[in-house]
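Appendix B. Extra example for self-study. Work through it before the problem class; the solution is given directly after the inputs so you can check yourself.
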Amino acid sequence: MSRIALITGGNRGIGRASAYALAEDGTDLIITYRSSPHEAEAVVAELTERGRTAVAVRLDITDDESFPEFGERLRELLHNQWDRESFDILVNNAGFDRVTPFGKTDAAAIDALYSVHVKGPILFTERLAPLIGDEGRILFTSSGLTRYVANPAYSVYASMKGAIEIYAKYAAKILGPRAITVNVLAPGATATDFAGGIIRDDEQYRAMITSNHAFGRVGEPQDIGGAVRTITAPSAGWITGQRIEASGGQSL
Amino acid sequence: MTDTRPRLALITGGSRGIGRKTVLALAARGVSVIFTYNTDRESADEVIRAAGTKEAKVTALQLDVAQLEQLPGFVEQVDAELTERGTDKIDYLINNAGVWHTASFADTTVDQFDRLFSVNVRGLFFTTQALLPLLRDGGRILNTSSGLVRFVFPGKAAYAMSKGAIEPLTRYLAAELAPRGIRVNSIAPGATATDFSGGVIRDDPEYRARVGAITALGRPAEPEEIAAAVAALLSDDMAWVNGERIEVSGGMRL
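Solution. Structure tokens for the complete assembly:
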């Protein structure tokens, strides 16, 4: 039986690379997208091409009032597509950045970052937990920025990511009796659309953030996708409550 | 991203416990293995028989990592072993050999302390250094730390210190060996049912229950669960994880 993974924000960047990596192992996919249905459809088409069953569902992770309905929809989807009552892997990946230069931090930016990186993933995970099978896997996405300061303007972004790291530890303890592992993946700077694509596209910025890096380069989405696959694999069943950084060795 | 090229692993301390299961897990994945044993040739032979795989060769070499004067001869033996297998490099170095000792802080003797550091720190440091020329560019080093570095079980102060020393070494190696593309990480197993601590975690039901009560997954680990994590962490998929300490404890003392 194929395992089933749900990846929020699976339409691009790290989420998409994670979907492709999991698909290589024969995992079926439910990806969510917020504002880019065409991107999501392209990912689903690619996954289907690779022989996986894949579905895209719209989700705004900041809209917690939509979660009950999303849960119902997911239940139906699992039943109709897979004849199952549960899925196996939840990857909380969706998110965005806001810069908050010290002294100019704007209240709306704090609220937005809180909604997307803390409140949303917590309530979403708790809503979906009953649908995650025993021995399942939950992964939260943090950031290397909780350990090192690469750009001072990410103070609030990193603080919110730090909050979800702590929540993950509690969830690991709480879901342990069901043999569900809960871990955090903390990517370093990765060449995606993140922050308007600045890490991918701006050579000067890239040089600045990789000046103290073991490999002197930023990560590619597939570098992170591979780590997602490994940490959520059946063989990683004894790894829980951990923060695992995939940065190649940033700011060692 | 699937591993296709045949790989070779060198595992120190492969005749029992987590090391033994790591030999078996890697051999089952088609990785050919050279492992070391200190004194127990019989157990080493048993591991070779248990691995018994056609596609992956498994052999054992004697090494006491505390006897640094043994290292040049050991490196020659490894080199010869590599040649015999039609390769010249090690893909994965897994520093697993170690000793434990239980004594309260008040009762720990200088000899006990020196023994722990001689094997767990000096031995690992200089074995790794001696093997560097035989390690493939783009290869991996995985050092075995311990959950006891993070959480406290009275009686393991000197042991935990010796394991703790490996963690900064891991980060330094991650930085210093990056120009050769070598990734270096450490794993920190929690309580695991092996000979460790006199086999108490494996054999004493009351002790096991106490461990279970402070572990998210509700019990001590079996050595094959740590070995599975080791094999997973060595996969090409994890190539962007570098300089990390990954605890494999089932969520002990979260």
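Self-check: The longest strand of chain A covers residues 132-141. If your reasoning did not lead you there, revisit section 3.
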